[in-house]
Amino acid sequence: QAHLVEHGGGLVQAGGSLQLACAASPPTFASLARGWFRQAPGKEREFVVGISWSNGSTYYTNSVKGRFTLSRDKAKNTVYLQMNSLKPEDTAVYYCAAGSALTSDLGKYSYWGQGTQVTVSS
To answer: Fewer Cβ neighbours under 10 Å: the N or C end of the chain?
Structure first.
């Protein structure tokens, strides 16, 4: 069955780096736009970054611009989220999602991964 699986996550110190990966299965599932969302304790789930599979266009939320980089590997049906200069406020459960178009609206995403915890300590 079609599904998304996140890899990575963990505990890092402020200023450190971490890379998350989101693999899609089956391979044809990867043709959908891919987005990353995060949810901190007591807060609503928010959009972080997304990528269009067709043309590689990306869209970043302002709080992560210049620090996070999203890329895709078509051969592996995987997207990678490189997170640099991490801050304590980046602490959250990060979710990979897939939808029919690149958008920040979580309601437009039909498929979701189980989430992976990212904790940034000070």
So the answer is: N
Q: H/E/C letters for each residue in 5-51?
A: EEECCEEEECCCCEEEEEEEECHHHHHCEEEEEEECCCCCCEEEEEE
**Cα-Cα end-to-end distance for the chain:** 40
Q: What CA–CA distance (Å, rounded) separates 91 from 69?
A: 17
Position 75 scores a pLDDT of 86
CA distance 63 to 107: 21
Rounded Cα distance between 17 and 83, Å, is 5
Task: List, in order, residues 6 or more apart from 28 with CB less than 8 Å away.
Answer: none
pLDDT score for 32: 84
| Strand 92-99 with 116-121, pairing | antiparallel
- Determine contact, residues 4/30, Cβ cutoff 8 Å: no
Contact indicator for 22, 113 with CB cutoff of 8 Å: yes
| Residues of the chain with confidence (pLDDT) below 50 | none
